[in-house]
Amino acid sequence: AFAGTEAQNSLSDIAGHANEEAITVNFNLNIINGMGDGTFAPDQAVTRAQFAAMITRALAVPDSALAGYKATTFKDTTGYGWAVPYLAFCQSKGILVGDGAGNVMPGRTVSVNEAVTMVMRAVGYTNNSAALVGVWPANYVSLAQNSNLYKNVATAVGVTRGNAAQIIYNALTVDKVEVSADGTAKVLSDRTVNPKKIVNMLTTGLNATEDTDYTVIG
User: Fold this and answer.
1) Which of 27, 130, 194, 207 could form an SS bridge with 183, CB 3.0 to 4.6 Å?
2) Got the DSSP string for 161-198?
3) Which of 111, 160, 155 is nearest to 136 (CA)?
4) 146-164, pLDDT tens digit by residue?
């Protein structure tokens, strides 16, 4: 259960939406912004650049650190100056890759397969992970399904703002991992020793705490 009603009180177009709780949490954690006019536009499409920004914010990268990402090797970022720090950060961490020809396609609607892949990479999975079976996108899709990233995500090819909020919401409590050279993924916590020692997006930088349930504070 998540506490916090700021978004519900300030966004006029999310009441009753299938992803209302996810939108509220993302808004309250400053992961996804509103449209500036009191609305959220939950059914509006999300671009690859926008989703890179959302993932970066979900990882609680401070502005001071983000300022160091001033350039990217992608050659199609003209007109997306606002997104360059996010794209560069995600590229440097292996979260976002291009088309193999130097393009990142920042203005293209991000697909659900791309979004869940970026999320699983953000929590630490790499292409050599033994948990990835087969080829992309099936390998990352299966991993994302096992991590419940698809819970309450509408079936669609492209990601909407509501779906983006839901995917990230689902990811907030996924354990972060570290993948070794042999492909073994080690969870960055030991619940058998300390059940409260949980390492995920909520507990590593975001203004939130996690205990028996999850509570958004601040």
Assistant:
1) 130
2) HHHHHHHHHHHTTSPPEEE-TTSPEEES--TTT-TT--
3) 111
4) 999 999 998 888 999 999 9
